[in-house]
TrEMBL record:
One of its GO terms (molecular function) is ATP hydrolysis activity. Residues 2-250 form the ABC transporter domain. This is ABC transporter ATP-binding protein. It holds the Pfam family ABC_tran. It comes from the Bacteria. One of its GO terms (cellular component) is plasma membrane. Gene3D superfamilies: P-loop containing nucleotide triphosphate hydrolases. InterPro entries: AAA+_ATPase (IPR003593), ABC_AA/LPS_Transport (IPR051120), ABC_transporter-like_ATP-bd (IPR003439), ABC_transporter-like_CS (IPR017871), BCA_ABC_TP_C (IPR032823), P-loop_NTPase (IPR027417). Keywords: ATP-binding, Nucleotide-binding, Transport. The keyword Kinase does not apply.
Amino acid sequence: MIVVEDVSKHFGGFRAVDGATMQIAEGSITGLIGPNGAGKTTLFNVIAGVLKPTGGRVTMQGEDITGLPPHELFHKGLLRTFQIAHEFSSMSVRENLMMVPGGQSGEALWNTWFHRGRIAQEEAALLKKADEVLEFLTIDHLKDEKAGNLSGGQKKLLELGRTMMVDAKIVFLDEVGAGVNRTLLNTIGDAIIRLNKERGYTFVVIEHDMDFIGRLCDPVICMAEGKVLAEGTLDQIKANEQVIEAYLGTGLKNKVKEEAAG
C-alpha cells in the first residue's frame, strides 16, 4: 500500500532519515520501533507530508505522493496522529469529531444565508456519525465533556475517533501509548484491532511498549540511525544481532552473551 524508497531527510549535516526503504502492506498493523533518535517520527512526518524529503520517493497504491501536503494526503485517506494530542480544548468531545470532515456546507457564507436546510441535514448526519464513533470507542459518556478536560489516554482515543470521521485508508499512530495508563492503552489497542479487522484500516504504529507492539503488530520494522535495520515478527526482531546492538550497545551486548555462556 505504501512503498518508501531510499528516503532521506537531512537537517543541515544531520541525517535524521538516511536512505530508509520499507513497504507497508494493505490491511496490516505494522509496528515501527527503534531507540530514541532513530528517525521514526521524522520518517512519519515525511510520509505524511509534514516534511519534504531530502531525497527518495513515497508511493501510495502506486501513486507518487512524495512531498504532497497533509491536506491533500488527508483526502487520499492517509492520516496521522501525534505524540501529543491536538484537540480543540474548549470544544466538546463530540464537536471535535464533527469538525473533522472538510467541505461542509456551513463553511460557505452563501450557504448560511440561502441553504440552511442543507446545513442542518449535514449537521444531523455528522452528529449521528460522531455519536456512533464515540460509542465504538467506548467514550460516549464523555461526548459533552470539553476535550481539554480529558485524560491523556482519552485524548488519544479522541484522535483515533477523528480518523473514523472520514474514509481513512491508512493511519500513522505516533506513540499512542505515551502517558496512557494500562487500562486505557488496552482500550486503544482493542479499538485499533477492531478498526483493522472490521473496517479494513491499515495502521503503522510507533511505540516503545513492546507488549503493545507484540499484541497488535505483524510485521515489526526496526530503525536505527535513520536506517531500516530489520523486519519480521517481534520475536525475530528481538533475536536480531543488529537490533540488540542498536538498543543495548556493543559492550552491553557482549556482556549479555558472556553471562549467557557462563
